[in-house]
Amino acid sequence: MSTAPRTWLVTGSSSGLGRALTEALLRDGHRVAATVRDTTRLNDLKDTYNDRLWTADLDVTDTTRLRHVVDTAFSDLGDIDHIVSNAAFGLYGAAEELDDQGIDQLLAANLVAPVQLLRSVLPHLRRQGSGHFTQISSTSGQTGMAGASLYHASKWGVEGFFESLHDEVAPFGVGITIVEPGSIDSNFFARLNVAEPIDAYDSGPVGDLHRYLADAAAVKADSLGDPAKMARAIIEAATSARPPRRLVLGSDSYTAIEQALSGRLAALRAQEEVARSTNR
């Protein structure tokens, strides 16, 4: 175990990275408040770890319920050292292919819910005078891809929010880390919501994406990230003496973000003269 036992609150704990993180924390001797839509999916862990696993059913898009669960967790457990905002919603398709309900669901889960989770825990963390908030974002928070525009928008939005919070909450002893995983060997793509295709996009990159997502074997082969290794990296980063502002996980994420940032930096430098020429 890398650190003394601490108390963690993790949303979206039933599968994928959230499940791997919850399991790793419990094995290490930590106490975990795990939220899921259906707490029965954690019964096996509850049977093994008993009082070290506190559970609550939660749809993170229900803000009233979210606040109640957070307040109850702090009331039952006392100080909570680490918050991990992991729950998310996946939706791909061209902007024109998306329906209104899907747009609302994705933004509610991926952008509004993390904002409201932070707002719910912050009064408790300020009272403690300490705490660390880890937001699970994605490679998509630094890149863009045809056919996933709204998903990228939600991740860029959440990154902007948490990037801005560093200096805002630092005086209270609260830290922030944004995690940017690449593809993960999980059920994310199996549960992914894909919009109904529009024929006009079939011959372009959106059509290519639809065909790729329909090939489960190809998607599985390209899912490089090991959730257990990623969970371990998140724990080590969050409990380090100086947690990073951002944590990139997966070789595919590193390559994609490095290329995106290099391209944007080159484009920015090419505009230096015109930028300076517009000063008053």
From TrEMBL:
Record keyword Oxidoreductase present: yes
InterPro entries attached to this UniProt entry: NAD(P)-bd_dom_sf (IPR036291), SDR_fam (IPR002347), SDR_oxidoreductase (IPR051911)
Gene3D superfamilies: NAD(P)-binding Rossmann-like Domain
Keywords from the UniProt entry: Oxidoreductase
Superkingdom: Bacteria
Family as reported in the entry's similarity comment: Belongs to the short-chain dehydrogenases/reductases (SDR) family.
Protein name (Swiss-Prot/TrEMBL): SDR family oxidoreductase
